[in-house]
Write a structure and sequence with these properties.
The protein has 413 residues and is an all-alpha fold. The protein has two domains: 187 residues, MFS general substrate transporter like domains (Growth Hormone, Chain: A, Up-down Bundle); 196 residues, MFS general substrate transporter like domains (Growth Hormone, Chain: A, Up-down Bundle). It is built from 20 helices and no strands. The longest helix is centred in the middle third of the chain and has 35 residues. It starts with 6 loop residues before the first helix and ends with a helix.
Length: 413
Amino acid sequence: MSSSFSPRRVVLSLCFAEVLTMVGVFAFPALLPTFIAEWGLSNTEAGWISGIYFGGYALAVPLLMSLTDRLDARRIYILGALVAAFSALAFALWAEGFWTALLFRALGGVGLAGTYMPGLKALVDRVSPEQVGKEKQARWISYYTASFSLGTSLSFLVIGGLAELLSWRAAFLFSCIAAVIGAALAWSLPVKVPRKPEQPAALLDFRPVLRNRPAMGYVLGYTTHMWELFAYRSWVVAFLAFVLVWQDEGGGMAPTTAATLSALLAMASSIIGADLASRFNRRKVIAAAMIASALLSLVLGLTAQLPYAWAVGLALLLGVLIQVDSAALTTGAVQVAEPGRQGATMAVHSLLGFAAAFLGPLAFGAVLDLAGGQEDVASWGWAFASVGIVALLGPLALWWSARPSPEEKGRSL
């Protein structure tokens, strides 16, 4: 790599590109009340438009990430950023109701599938442990994955602000421009040919990844993490709004402000967690964070009976605890992936993780309805408890992955 493209510059360029391409990711949820009123959407239709984004992601990510083992991930990133830009442009110009919004948001999910994890693969290919050391690579991976939380916060803030100042169509146009700039940043990176695996496999053959027990431990742990994280992010505003009404308190931090602050704190939490994992036993650090967040999830719903400030504080604490293991899990999966199969490993990692991100909020809402609805304190208790139960499966996955496989036991005899 030339001196003009130092590892630090590569990392900064990719982090900045990620944030730019994420401006439009939460554009529809940020303006949901506007679209419900303007288009007369039902709650079910609004839910489909919000969820289809991650449906498009899940469908596209196995192919796009697998290609990064054969092609320069930078090329996949540029393609994904341009797809995201076109999705935002099309939404701004032609979205006029349920079906057009559904189509363009699904296309946006494909764009995210071409940028988020391919961007990480582009980083890993250009900032290798042999070049910068294993600990520094882990720290820079954490910067990139933590930028997802920064992008989340800015997506809500920028889109909401531009829509209020100008219009929602102008806000989507801005996200198009931001994604194009992200593509330009990726294009400026040096070319890097990916390392070939020792035993090549078919493009979408994930069996070697599934047989990699250490990697699958991190993948399954990431799956439970994403279930917990997106259930929390999808419902924390509604929960705090319920507490505010239930307690009949004036003033205090607005629920949306609390959610924005939570996303910003999560970025720092993810970086700190990744640093702890690189300094100490990775599995133990991750398991401790998972258990702590799961225990708080088990009881958070019941804090509606406490003063609003207490509920906000504990909700923010949960957001911090959930993110401690985020970058550490992804870094772990990358570092134990078979050489030449990092793209395939990250494809499985991302596919299962974002499938859980789609299902977690749905399951939370189903439990909430079955337990009595949004107006009942106990229902919130059961809904958050269900998230905590799923989160406790993460440490079990790590424990399983640390045990020798039957083949390894046979070789040791």
